[in-house]
Amino acid sequence: MSCSSLEALTRCSVAVDLGAARTRVYAKGAGLVVDQPSAVAVNTHSGALIAVGQAAERMAGRTPQHIQVIRPVSNGHVVDIEMARRMVRTLIGERLRGLKRRRTMQRALAVVPHDADPLMRRAAVETLTGVGARHVELVEAPIAAAIGCGLPVVRAEGAMVLVCGTTTTQIAVVSLGAVVAGGTVNLGGETVHHSVVQYLRNRHELLLPSQDVRPLHLALLGSGGVGDRRGGGTGNTLEVQGRDVVSGLARTVTVDPEELRGAVQTPLTGLLDTIRAVLHRCPPDLVADLAERGMVLAGGTALLPGLAEQLREHTGMTVHVAQEPDLCAINGLAAMMTHGAGVADEGAAPWQPDPTRADPLSGGREVIGGPSAVAAAEAAVPVPEQEAG
């Protein structure tokens, strides 16, 4: 991405990060206005939207047959355009009510994976044009995350960033505003989740509730997680309660965290192999820059305990975890909209919320998107008669 194109992004007024786990929206003059799970609850009989965001997330696994929780974004790209439109329209409807909504959505900025094909890019464009955007600019996730981390991506210097998402991890070496070498591996929070659940099912014939997987994550990759005993275990073992596969009754088993590490060894090995392949494709001068600067972890899965230590041990490179890694991409988009090429060229600090302004998310704990909000928001945001690409 050249400096001229970065300067052109300053004309955008809203930035959207459609992630598989969460959807985030930043608006000029308002800050971060949406930070909600990418989930939609729908009545399968009537097609009516019941809830979105946090309200829909809490329904997952607890719904009757006529209600389905849909995730319209997978692997960083939109897989259900219509549901994604309804989700975004509902989430931003009430948040932008106090602003000039039509002008705010005039030009939008969105994140896509660096290896997104034309269909994936078109799906992101159509999602935003369907909620009122007249023009959509697309930015590759590693570029946005690198700028959000404060890396000078426009300079003739190498910088390596790992965008650790929910289902995939993108590895990229950036220089002069573009990705020099990159790769994607199927490793993320959901990958670890499924590996743990599948191991317990095969090894102990136990079905684990989704809310009990997080304590096992803490014991999985970091030695600090083993000692916190969140799973109720003693010493170096954990007591895990779930449902017996055969009898269907509740049962408790004792699990050694060392067993769990072995369960995810294959995807971790794939991550290390992809990092080596990306480094192998880089010019020697860039590799020298990376040896000095190291790599930066961004994305929510970067917070997995022990992940940075394992990468440091197996690659020999310095590994840094970005501050607020889950917000790096949206921070990068906000910085590009505000400062253009200046923030990327000078390596300035990423955008941070104004401490004098009331937090529109109230600490991220406010739940929006209930049944009453859905109807009001869908009516509030106009749908253009003609879409613009």
Keywords:
Nucleotidyltransferase, domain 5; 23% strand; Actin, Chain A, domain 4; 389 residues; 18 strands; alpha+beta; 5-stranded mixed beta sheet; disordered C terminus
Walk me through the topology.
Blueprint: H1 3-8, E1 14-18, E2 22-27, E3 31-37, E4 40-43, E5 49-52, H2 54-57, E6 67-70, E7 73-74, E8 77-78, H3 81-93, H4 101-104, E9 107-112, H5 118-129, E10 135-140, H6 141-148, E11 159-164, E12 169-175, E13 178-185, H7 189-204, E14 206-207, H8 213-221, H9 223-227, E15 238-244, E16 250-255, H10 257-263, H11 265-281, H12 284-293, E17 295-298, H13 307-315, E18 319-321, H14 328-339, H15 341-346, H16 371-380
Helix pairs in contact: 3-5, 3-16, 6-14, 7-8, 8-10
Region (Disordered): 344-365
InterPro entries: ATPase_NBD (IPR043129), MreB (IPR004753), MreB_MamK-like (IPR056546)
Protein name: Cell shape-determining protein MreB
